[in-house]
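G., the chain you wanted modeled:
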Amino acid sequence: MLVYAGIDEAGYGPMFGPLCVGASVLVLEQYDPADGEPDVWSMLKHCICKTRRDAKKKIAVNDSKKLKSGSTKKGLQHLERGVLSFFATMGQQFSDDEQLFNAANCKVSDELWCNTKTPLPYSNDKQSLKIDSSLLRRGLAKENIRCALLRCISVDAEKYNERTEHSSKAALNFSLAMQHVAAITKQWANEHPRIMIDRHGGRIQYRNDLQLCWPHAQIQVLAETQELSRYRLDIEGSLCTITFASKSDERHMPVALASMIAKYVRELMMVRFNKYFADQLPELKPTAGYTQDGRRFLKEIEPILSKKGINRELLVRSS
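Predicted structure as tokens:
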């Protein structure tokens, strides 16, 4: 059996909206870890594809940036199809985004602009998603694979600013990823999970940072090359292997799924954000939160912030 996990982030650079770090776990019941890294896309080729172009009769799973198209509601169609279909194989279906956030163990800020629920599905119709979910369920069953976890940690602007005041956003991103590692290792303590993570900022050496997270763990360096950095950790008798590699979301389906849940959660939170301000300024064009357009958005909502007495540090990131 292989416990095959992935971790990835969404919203690393914007000035508005949360930083979200997602995690997923696929359990391959009859796969021998000694056979190396599995190509789950090939195993599920009858129901899964990588591109939007091929997604008419299949479900696209890939780096979230390749699946989101434009800024319209329809642009989330493929992200939503993938995320909700995998949740459905775990027996979880949602009528609104709050139920999804709860299932993903994702805490939502209690600020005013985060309080409006969004009905789900957002970009698809329910009947189509039922067909997708059935297709995926059969494909997973045929290959003895199950989706065992989809989670997301969300850090809003206020907490982001607090945690990066004396540190970097790279350090914050790493610490959130390690929270997922800790949870996965604990849940599959006897199964030696293999955890894939996109390389952070092109770094090659991670041993010291891992040791800071687990001071008493025994850490073996398996590889530190231009291609990947791999470590085996023994945490109080529980083994896990962590691999940092560039373009992991293109090579490892659990990382792609992690990217998708992180991006989907962030986009749904931005729907709430935009709705709050649009309700008070109907002509306001929504923003994705990135710097250039974010500056335009901030300028236009300044009268609302002044009127409501809203501290900019509660919604604008400091870095």
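Residues 198 and 247 are 6 Å apart (CA to CA).

Shout if anything looks off.
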